[in-house]
Amino acid sequence: MQLLRKYHSLLDAQQDAMNLRSRGVATHISGKESYRVAPIFSGVFYVSLWVVLDHQYNDALALLDDPDHPVRDPLPADDMDVLEADFNGEASRYAFSFIVVGAIVMLGLFLLVIE
């Protein structure tokens, strides 16, 4: 995975991601959730657009500058759906693990305080 660009507008990042996806380039936008909360509270003032497959990096950069650029190895929509489902499932597992560990730590602290 390689960084393509940073955006101060989530909408602009999403639009570029959709355009790249429509041409067969798999992307990911990081920082969306923190950015949505409110930058003043989260400290996140931009989102980042990443190309998922390293071999598509040069095509992705070229497409951002020239929408008519021919993609050398476009990913079929079905493969992209599988890739996104795998990524979202993995992210959900990490989030769940983080919540469980946080709950255990909070319970431990609570038990220490009430003793």
Account of the protein in words:
This protein is α+β, with helices and mostly antiparallel strands. The chain has a 3-stranded antiparallel β-sheet with strand order 1-3-2. The longest helix is centred in the last third of the chain and has 38 residues. The chain is elongated, with a radius of gyration of 19 Å.
Class of secondary structure makeup: alpha+beta
Instruction: Report the biggest beta sheet as strand number plus sense, adding barrel if it closes.
Output: 3 strands, antiparallel
Measured as a percent range, the helix fraction is: 55-70%
Separation of the first and last Cα atoms: 48 Å
Which geometry do the CA atoms define?
elongated
* Distinct helical segment count: 5
> For the residues shown, what is the average pLDDT?
81
- The stretches of 5 or more residues where confidence is low (pLDDT under 50) are none
Oligomer: single chain
Return the string of H and E elements: EHEHHEHH
Strands side by side in the biggest sheet? 1-3-2
Beta fraction: 5-15%
Radius of gyration: 19 Å
How many extended strands? 3
What brief labels describe this structure?
single chain; 115 residues; alpha+beta; three-stranded antiparallel beta sheet; 5 helices; 3 strands; 61% helix
